[in-house]
Amino acid sequence: MEEQDFWVRLEFRICAEFQGFEDRHLRWYWCDGLVADRRRRTMLISRPVG
User: Fold this and answer.
1) Of 19 and 48, more confident
2) I need a labelling partner for 1 at 20 to 30 A (CA). Which of 8, 13, 36, 42 fits?
């Protein structure tokens, strides 16, 4: 699968998930495209607060 195909399929999957929500208000949401992040992947570490 090409990367572009992945993002298109993910977009349609997100839309399908919204349609399946029990909350009727949330069913009206949709995904109108995704933008792949081209930055270098790094591990983010957050410290516990409190």
Assistant:
1) 19
2) 42
- Tokens matching residue 44: 């983010």
Radius of gyration of the CA atoms of the chain, in A: 16
* Spatial distance between the Cα atoms of 17 and 9, rounded to a whole number of angstroms: 12
Integer angstrom CA distances of residue 28 from 16, 25, 31: 11, 6, 10
* pTM across the whole model: 0.61
Could you read off the pLDDT of 1-37 as tens digits, one per residue? 888 888 889 999 999 999 999 998 888 888 888 776 6
Residue partners of 3: CB distance under 8 A and separation at least 6: 36
Length of the chain: 50
